[in-house]
TrEMBL record:
It is found in: Nucleus. CDD domains: MADS_MEF2_like. It comes from Hordeum vulgare subsp. vulgare (Domesticated barley). Its main location: nucleus. Residues 1-61 form the MADS-box domain. This is Uncharacterized protein. Keywords: Coiled coil, DNA-binding, Nucleus, Transcription, Transcription regulation. GO terms for cellular component: nucleus.
């Protein structure tokens, strides 16, 4: 009697599902054992039943096999991540290189170079862009001139105010000098003045002769 091909879908009958689980679980554990013995392979098998019961098989040590699996998986993930990062960096570099080439070509056209291959529409577009750039440059130039002029006016106002303050200060100092009382005459200065004003008739000779 030829057995029909089993359709791969969930068995709806609970009893049939449990019987099938038991049979296939046993066959799977047997195949795992045979694989480890015949091929000298390190095999670890973990199965949980629908009710949560654990069935396992390990050719050596389940813990060691799991640790080995983690290490290998981690290394593979790291290698894949590095490879993905390298490919991403290469793609980004190629994209940046293309953008730089495009910008360089646009720059040359704006400078009036390599215009032979441009169509009339491209030339008109370049002309519009240059006109807009000139408007922006002139507006910024005017703004800078206005800022410089404003700064110079503020500097001029400050210099005038400083000049006026100095002038007022000089006027005050001159006024104070004019209103200051004369310095008192000392005794020594008075004695010198008296000595200059005293006249003497003292002379040498006989009195009344009028001759020395």
């Amino acid at each position: 009697m030829v057995r029909g091909k089993t359709q791969m879908k969930r068995i709806e009958n609970p009893t049939s599902r449990q019987v099938t689980f038991s049979k296939r679980r046993g066959g799977l554990l047997k195949k795992a054992f045979e694989l480890s013995v015949l091929c000298d392979a390190e095999v670890a098998l973990v199965v949980f039943s629908p009710r949560g019961r654990l069935y396992e098989f390990a050719s050596s040590s389940m813990k060691n096999t799991i640790e080995r699996y983690k290490t290998v998986t981690k290394d593979n993930i790291n290698r894949q991540t590095v490879q993905q990062d390298i490919e991403k960096i290469k793609a980004d570099a190629e994209g940046l290189s293309k953008k730089l080439d495009t910008l360089e070509a646009c720059k040359r056209k704006l400078l009036g170079q390599n215009l032979e291959e441009c169509s009339i529409e491209e030339l008109q577009s370049l002309e519009v862009k240059i006109d807009k750039s000139l408007l922006g440059i002139r507006a910024m130039k005017t703004r800078r001139f206005e800022e410089q002029l404003s700064a110079l006016r503020l500097k001029e106002t400050k210099l005038r105010q400083d000049n006026e303050d100095l002038y007022i200060q000089c006027q005050k100092e001159q006024h104070l000098e004019l209103e200051a009382p004369p310095a008192p005459v000392t005794m020594a200065e008075q004695g010198q003045d008296d000595a200059v004003e005293v006249e003497t008739d003292l002379f040498l000779g006989l009195p009344g002769t009028g001759r020395p």
